[in-house]
Amino acid sequence: MPMGKDKLRKWKENETFDHVFEPNLQDAVKGIDGEMKGKWSEVFKNDNPITLELGCGKGEYTVGLAKKYPNRNFVGVDIKGHRFWRGAKTAQEESIPNVAFLRTRIEFIEKYFDKEEISELWITFSDPQPKDEKGTKRITSPYYIEMYKNILKPSSIINIKSDSVLLYDLSKEGYLEKGYDIQIDSKDVYGELVDRVEKDLRDALEIKTYYEKRWLSEGKKIHFIQLKV
Fold it and tell me: Is this structure's pTM higher than 0.90?
């Protein structure tokens, strides 16, 4: 199937999923809040803690976390609906009740989640944006961390997992400058970190996406930073 038609097919199927939300991006540009803001407990029909995966790609990590932690809710966020279609389809096929997906740009995240509505963030393998000197495009930068703090409960955790040395170095440098509370810091998740963290985090770290498996097979190391904000 031609790439364009395949994207259209996935976009159309996303529209049929109750757990996929695709608000009009222009509303966010105009400053209009999404109708789900402050109402995610109604979406999931429970008051369990909510974790976001930002830049979720195919949604593999979002779904993997949801399977491991059935007493938490997970929302994968990405602007490319044809990518997270795979995760949304898996959640539908396997009847995973604690998964949802939101199609939007990360800079508009406050339009869709209320103050202190979120308990935890995962940012997995995001674009390091090497030319982004101000950090306004790199979604792990302090510029974005300050934004995330507006939707996170006090003392929430932000987990950052990456194959990029550049992203790791730039992010850590920014966190140290800001005086953020770095809880865990490693340049080699599987070489040493999984052996020194508690089982709960080890289980989460050991979720591997398709691309992560490929990078590991090429000998790349995976990096990790955890913040408490």
Answer: yes
